[in-house]
Amino acid sequence: MSNRTAQKMFNRTADEHQKALVSLIKAFGYRHTLDEVFADFVELSALAVSNAVDKHHFQAREERYLAIVKKYDPADFKRFPQMLGALTACFEDRVQRLVPGGEGLADVLGQTYMMLELGSSRAGQFFTPYSVSRMMALMNVGDGSPHIQREGYVTVHEPACGAGGMVIACADAFNDAGHNYQDVMHATCVDIDPRCVHMTYLQLALLHIPAIVIHGNALSNESWSHWFTPAHILGGWGPRLRRRSREEAVPEHAEPTATVGADTVVQGVAPVIVLPSGGTDPEPRPRICVREDQLALF
Q1: pTM
Q2: Which residue, 23, 15, 12, is CA-closest to 90?
Q3: pLDDT value of position 137
Q4: Exposure string for 201-234, b = 16+ CB within 10 A, e = fewer
């Protein structure tokens, strides 16, 4: 999708919260480029969400957070929580209206990224329009009932996740089929671009999609960091995935996997998680806090 097309689509589909997010990104002026502000926003937000639930990685990520903060004066930095608030409100509105066959979810950051013309044409970095991702997910996922009835849940593996739009579309498809995607779907997402990792993690975290987002290379099986969404940790998905891995070996007569899009795979067997050579990335323990004013997203 061209940048001009992305701009037209944004103007037609963006709600007030998404437009507020874009206005805040552009408010930094000449001192920081749009590319820098957007990258820092998604990383700061991802670090903040991760540190609320993942104490194993807390110290290193807190140090990274503070290093980014030093780049901005206080007046500019105050916009970052406002930007996260606008993004959260955008998803909150969509979740509140979420019904089977309805308007559905959205790849908010992917759409914003393309509208701001931040995609790299030289790297072939163009995100699929969400309407196309949703159509592909609906066609390939179906109602998911056979796998869900047999296994209890479906795993989704996305080796080039971008902003996470295809995984969000799969969640949308399960919702249209009458399933709660938070209970019946787990995603493993990989991308070599750290900005894409942060975008995917942030969107899946806000939509409470159980997932592990890996900064790595799906072709060479290298990985450098793992990001566990709050839904993954609080939902006890680590033990569920490990239990399936222990109980099941892939049988010779296994059904072929169903491809969703060019890279996403939906299947009934939990994917192999790529770990850094020479060590493991321990699963964080659940840390649950309940607030009276909690949003529906969480």
Answers
A1: 0.82
A2: 15
A3: 92
A4: bbbbbbbbbbbbbbbbebeeeebebbbbbbbbbb
